[in-house]
Amino acid sequence: xxxxxxxxxxxILLGASCFAISLPLFQDSIRMLEDAQFAFDSSEFxxxxxxxxxxxxxxxxxxxxxxxxxxxxxxxxxxxxxxxDISAVTAVLQSRDVYDVVALIEYMSALHGExxxxxxxxxxxxxxxxxxxxxxxxxxxxxVYEYEGEYELSYSYYTDAWNHATVLDIPEKKYDxxxxxxxxxxxxxxxxxxEKALMLIIASDPYYSDDGFATAxxxxxxxxxxxxxxFNLYRSDCYRSIPAFYRLTELYQEQGRHQEAFKxxxxxxxxxxxxxxxxxxxxxxxxxxxxxxDFFAIALSNYELAEWTMDQxxxxxxxxxxxxxxQLFPENKDFSDQLFAVMxxxxxxxxxxxxxxxxx
Length: 360
Description:
There is one protein chain. By secondary structure, the protein is mainly α. Helices cover 70% and strands 4% of the residues. The protein has helices at 27-41, 45-74, 77-80, 86-95, 99-112, 121-130, 135-147, 151-163, 173-187, 191-203, 211-222, 227-233, 242-254, 258-283, 291-299, 303-312, 314-328, 333-346, 350-359, and strands at 3-7, 10-14, 19-22. It has a three-stranded antiparallel sheet. A hairpin with a 4-residue loop joins strand 2 (10-14) and strand 3 (19-22). The radius of gyration is 27 Å and the shape is elongated.
């Protein structure tokens, strides 16, 4: 006879074979990985590595418990006759008093929404199979090996985390993995893989991937638009791409790929400008400005924005945009001259102000 024991948010099903399911799902492996992250942050790298690897094993055990419970509950002919429909299957399980599995199914449905699984019990099983892999743990292991200078090992774990990014608990974490892959590759002079990782980041930027928008933005400079006009006409609010555009600007500049460097700088500065503009609009009543000179005078009077521009490497990219613009589009001298003038007047650091002055 089966016995269902409830302990808070956890439940344990005892039967011929013993296994346990706890809700919320995968809480034990998540907690172990959090302990591993704490150890990493505390420079206990051996402990971090051990806990991260153990969290992978624990995740597999958690998934196995769920799959075993579902397999056993779905085995009777009465349940199979209900078909693949989650609602129908759940109704039969409730009539059979299999409350642990009903709770599991309802939890997953509530967590992701029934549309996510297309109301299919088989898709739910496929989801659980995929969750055997714990890419968050591989990501942390990669960071440990990177710290220890093990490039190949580190990159292999970053690659494993990226290859399984579709099962990340937080989908946006995939960009953290790509940025870490890019930084590792750059630091070990593997510029090809650095570029690949960064391009994967900006490939999902809706503005960069819009050929019409990208062409219009680039052509606006080619056609002689002033910097004031360019930054008045266009906006790009995919802020996660900003560091990628900055790094690609430098990478292409180092490789002498000046057209590509200019394009990356233009997108990077446009996204940064959009972010600053949005910040000020949300904090300054009736925010208005007359041209870039006025905008940056207002923006950089704000301590947060001034610090952000310095911390993010904004002025290096801003300088690249102006300098490359003067080289590639000499017929549109006003564009680069206006950027240099803004930089000479507004850059918080004297180095960039003096460099801009030397170019005017």
